[in-house]
Amino acid sequence: MEMPNLHFDKVADDIVAVKGELTRDTLINESLLNQLLENAQSVLYFDLCEVSRVDTAGLAWLIHSLGKLKRQGIRLELQNRPEQLQNLMELGQVTTLFE
Q1: pTM (2 d.p.)
Q2: Residue spans of alpha helices (H) in the chain
Q3: Of 11, 21, 57, 94, which cross-links 53 as Cys (Cβ 3.0–4.6 Å)?
């Protein structure tokens, strides 16, 4: 069985393309977020158009990232949210966190 994977490609100083699965099986490396924060300005965009699957752990990681960035004065914006993520956000009543 193929292991799920997750990749972050920094396409610009303020845009990170998230590719693969945002799940409990892929989100094991806290240093990933720290690498993404390097050179971050006042806004960081996560482009989620190539995210194939999201679970509650993926949503929790996004909320954790939002809080960590906010403490550093950086706003996190999610672009091209997959329907699965949008549904999880609505179920968890956290949609307004990312507005």
Answers
A1: 0.88
A2: 31-37, 56-71, 83-91
A3: 21
